[in-house]
Amino acid sequence: MRRGPARPTHRVIALVAVLAGILAVVGIPAVATAGPSPSSTLWLCRPGQPADPCGGRGDAPVDCFYVYPTVSLAPGVNAPRSVGPEERLIANQQAEPFGARCRVWAPVYRQSTLRGLFSARSTADRTAALRVAYTDVLSAWRDYLAHDNGGRGVVLVGHSQGTLMLRTLLREEIEPSPVHDRLVSAILLGGNVLTRSGSLVGGDFTRTPLCTARAETGCVVAYSTFGRTPPADTRYGVVPTEVSSPSRPLPAGDGYSVACTNPAALGSAATAPLRSRIAGRPVTGYNGRCTTGAGPHVLQVSGGDPVPAVALPQLPNATWGLHLLDVNIAQDDLVDLVGAQARTYLAHR
Hints:
Layout: H1 10-23, E1 43-45, E2 62-67, H2 85-94, E3 102-107, H3 114-119, H4 123-147, E4 154-159, H5 161-174, E5 183-189, E6 194-196, E7 219-221, E8 225-226, E9 256-258, E10 272-278, E11 281-290, E12 299-303, H6 331-347
Parallel strand pairs: 2-3, 2-4, 4-5, 5-7, 8-12
Antiparallel strand pairs: 1-3, 6-9, 10-11, 11-12
Helix pairs in contact: 4-5
């Protein structure tokens, strides 16, 4: 008998528990170490690679360039250029499902580690660590374009620190170049992507608007999820006064809004059912809507039985909301959206 979508049960809690373990060791002071400059790309995921946590599939018509979030348990400020279990876990949970719609490429990068994130003594220290991380992502992107892209359309997929890397890459490297014509879409989650207030563009990007329809390409999907009303000191959904950037400064301050695009209801603030994927299995029961107005702009999640959205763990604290589940909470909606965008992109080539 064919199984239908599962309700959110212990699988939700199990995945959150595993990911929470990654965050459990963060308060330990770190010693700064940038590591050697990369001489070649080390790929966490690439089509045809053995034991690829993203599935290694190579028959999809477009590519995904995935940059994973902050997961490294390394003791320094920057992670080493090596593949650990935490990188494999997060790539499998976040990126592997996209392999049904795109060939997934994911570089290993010397990201700012969890310990470095929580022990940075100043904005300058944080920025220096991010600059090292971005050097690897930029190098991998250029390597991929030169040797592997072959003119194919590309979906950018990032979460948290990965979104910060891709915000910078899209803003500084892709938008000013002809490669922007190959952008199928950019899925930039958990990272406070900004637009000009009242506009679909401006802010982070000048040529790449927010997505408002499934058949639209060359656009951005961005949101951060909360199961409860965001607290006054929320990290997400409000325009920051200052942003640690790996390159030239990103927008901040007045005149901007944080983007929220619900992949289940693009271009709308309506509540819509979300198709989640938790621990590799489809889960139904959650709903999402993008909040608007003067408060934080987030993807507000409701519903859920027997694990209601309001009971999902907020880690490491309430100011982060459901940050660890940003991708998984609407995973199947995102994957199907990439499929629809890829079809539109290919039809117009």
